[in-house]
Amino acid sequence: MRRLLIGDMLFCAALLAGGAVVLGELAKVPPAPFDPLGSAAVPSALAWIIIALAALVMARALVRLVKDMRGGASARGDAPEMSLRHGVQTAIITALTTVYVFAITSQSVPFSVSTAVLVAVGTLVLAENRWHRLPLIGAIALATGAGSEWLFTRVFYLPLPHF
Question: How many Cα atoms occupy the beta-carbon half-sphere of 9 within 13 Å?
């Protein structure tokens, strides 16, 4: 278990370093004269989100590692075991994300539709057969698809594929 925790910490350190490099490069981007937010706003926000999440995961791994090294409650008991089901879920979500990126870049499917499908199918895969929540999942997926398209086309002025 220690190897997994150390691996988590090293991966998070790489994410923190990568985020710092991205922020450094974004600082060199000149401000756009007609764009209210500038072209670096979204990448900068995403870099900060990745940095924050990596710091949280790194802190959690460090706490578990220290607890394990002191002989306290085993870190192995705190972490969920990886099962075949989790591996299948990971493979499906990876494939779904790949198809989503392909659909957006090829502009073959409208952005709002592809986003709604990603959210709905991804949630159903991760929800583990909770079909009784399908109406709620569908509503959230539709709101996410429509809201994302509105945000990216009306606020950030990105040319996205649409109807």
Answer: 14
